[in-house]
Design brief:
By secondary structure, the protein is of the alpha/beta class. It contains twelve helices and twelve strands. It has a seven-stranded mixed sheet, sandwiched between helices. Helix 1 runs antiparallel to helix 8 and helix 3 packs parallel to helix 4. The model has no long low-confidence stretch (mean pLDDT 97). Bound molecules: pyridoxal-5'-phosphate.
C-alpha cells in the first residue's frame, strides 16, 4: 500500500452540516456556520476579531489592504516561505525585503531583522514554520521600537503556542497586529480551500469588516449602526460560502482528536527516524523552549542536496512519498531580479536539504514500518 505525503481527513460530519446549510436556504457567506467558526476561534484562542476567508492567501491580501501598503513601502518577509506570504504585499506595490532563516530552525532569524529596517519599512511578516513559533517577544520588541506592524502567517500554526519571557503562554496568531491561518486540505484542520484572518489590533477591526465585504459597510448596517449601506472603502469578496464554513465546523469539532493523533505520529517519527534511516545523516526538527509543536509537519534536514535526493528516491521505491518544501523566494524566477542580491544561506540550505515525511490523521506508524520492510535504510 502506497503511503502518500498527505491525505485530507474527513470527520464524517461535514456532509451533515452542509446538508443543514443547504436546507436552511442560506448558502452565501456570513451565515450560521461562519458565526460558529468565528465565535469558536475568538473564544478558544482569544483573537480579538476573526473573519473566515476563502484562503490564507486571501487573508494575507486583506492584511496588505488593512495596513494600507502602497508602492514604495518595504515589507520584511522570510525567503523560506510560501509564495502567498510575499505575493499579497507585492500586489499592493511593496518592495519585498527577504530575510534569512535561523541556522537551527527555518523560522525568520529575529537577530537579523533590525539591520533590514529603513524609513520605508512598514511591516514584518513572520511565518511560524511547521507550526513552531518564531521568537515573538523579540519580534514585537523590534516592531514597537521601529513603529512597524507585525503579521503572523500562521497558516500551519493552528492550536500552537508561544510562551513569552513573562511566562505567559499565548496562542500563535494572537500576538501580531494581524494573523492569517489556512484551512487548505494540506493543513491540520481543513475545508478544501479556506482561511482565517485574526485581527488583534483594535484600530484595524472596523475596516476589516468593510474590506471583507467588498468595501461596503454592510456589517454596520445589519447591526443597525447605519441606516443604509454602500461603498465606503477598498475591499473584495473575501468571505467563503456557508458550504465551506459548514465543512470547517465539522473539523473544528474534532480538533482535539486530530491534533492528538498527529502529535502521536510526530513523536513516533522523532523517536524512531534515527533507527529507521540509520545509513543517512540528518538533523531532526528543533523546537525552542518557548514554542509548542502542533503536529503539523515532521521534517529532516540533510547535510547535502544529493543525500536528500537519494533518500526521496529510496523511499519512493518503497512506495513512501516524502517531499521537499519551499524554494527560496529571493531566488525565484519572478523575484530574483528585484532582490537586492544579499545571499540568504540558511534559506537556501532548507530549500536544498529539508524533506518532509508523510504525516496525516490516518497514518499509523506500523504502516511506515511495514512499507520500509525488514531492512532499515
Ligand atoms: C499553506 C500556506 C499558505 C497558503 O494557504 P492557502 O490557504 O492555500 O492560501 C500561506 N503561507 C504558508 C506558510 C502556508 O503554509
Amino acid at each position: 500500500m502506497a503511503i502518500p505525503f498527505n491525505k485530507p481527513y474527513i470527520t464524517g460530519r461535514e456532509v451533515h452540516y452542509i446538508y443543514d446549510a443547504v436546507s436552511s436556504g442560506h448558502i452565501s457567506g456570513n451565515g450560521k456556520y461562519t458565526k460558529f467558526c468565528h465565535e469558536y476561534f475568538e473564544r478558544k484562542y482569544g483573537f480579538k476579531k476573526t473573519l473566515l476567508t476563502t484562503s490564507c492567501t486571501a487573508a494575507l491580501e486583506m492584511s496588505a489592504l488593512l495596513l494600507k501598503i502602497k508602492p514604495g513601502d518595504e515589507v520584511i518577509i522570510p525567503s523560506f516561505t510560501f509564495v502567498s506570504t510575499a505575493l499579497a504585499f507585492y500586489r499592493e506595490g511593496a518592495r519585498i525585503i527577504f530575510a534569512d532563516s535561523k541556522s537551527d530552525q527555518p523560522c525568520i532569524d529575529e537577530d537579523k531583522i533590525e539591520e533590514l529596517i529603513t524609513p520605508k519599512t512598514k511591516a514584518i511578516i513572520v511565518v511560524h514554520y511547521a507550526g513552531v513559533a518564531c521568537d515573538m517577544d523579540k519580534i514585537m520588541g523590534i516592531a514597537t521600537r521601529n513603529g512597524l506592524f507585525v503579521v503572523e502567517d500562521a497558516a500551519q500554526a493552528i492550536d500552537s503556542y508561544y510562551t513569552g519571557r513573562d511566562g505567559i503562554r499565548k496562542p500563535l496568531g494572537s500576538i501580531g497586529n494581524l494573523a492569517t491561518f489556512s484551512f487548505h486540505e494540506t493543513k491540520n484542520i481543513q475545508c478544501g480551500e479556506g482561511g482565517l484572518l485574526a485581527i488583534n489590533d483594535p484600530r484595524l477591526i472596523e475596516r476589516s469588516e468593510i474590506i471583507w465585504e467588498k468595501g461596503t459597510n454592510r456589517a454596520q448596517f445589519f447591526r443597525g449602526e447605519v441606516d443604509k449601506y454602500g461603498w465606503v472603502d477598498t475591499g473584495s469578496s473575501f468571505l467563503p460560502s456557508e458550504i465551506s464554513a459548514a465543512f470547517l465546523w465539522a473539523q473544528i469539532e474534532e480538533i482535539a482528536k486530530i491534533q492528538g493523533k498527529r502529535l502521536n505520529t510526530w513523536n513516533w517519527y522523532h523517536e524512531n527516524v534515527d533507527d529507521l534511516f540509520e545509513s543517512y545523516s540528518f538533523s531532526k526538527p528543533y523546537t525552542p523552549g518557548y514554542a509548542t509543536n502542533n503536529g503539523h509537519m515532521f521534517y529532516l534536514n540533510f547535510f547535502c542536496a544529493n543525500e536528500r535526493t537519494r533518500f526521496i528516491q529510496e523511499l519512493k521505491d518503497k512506495n513512501v512519498y516524502p517531499v521537499f518544501h519551499y524554494q527560496s523566494l529571493h531566488k525565484s524566477k519572478f523575484y530574483k531580479k528585484l532582490h537586492d542580491g544579499r545571499p540568504l544561506k540558511n534559506a537556501d540550505k532548507y530549500s536544498d536539504c529539508l524533506v518532509r515525511l508523510p504525516l496525516y490523521y490516518e497514518l499509523e506508524p506500523y504502516q511506515i514500518v511495514e512499507a520500509l520492510g525488514e531492512k532499515s535504510l
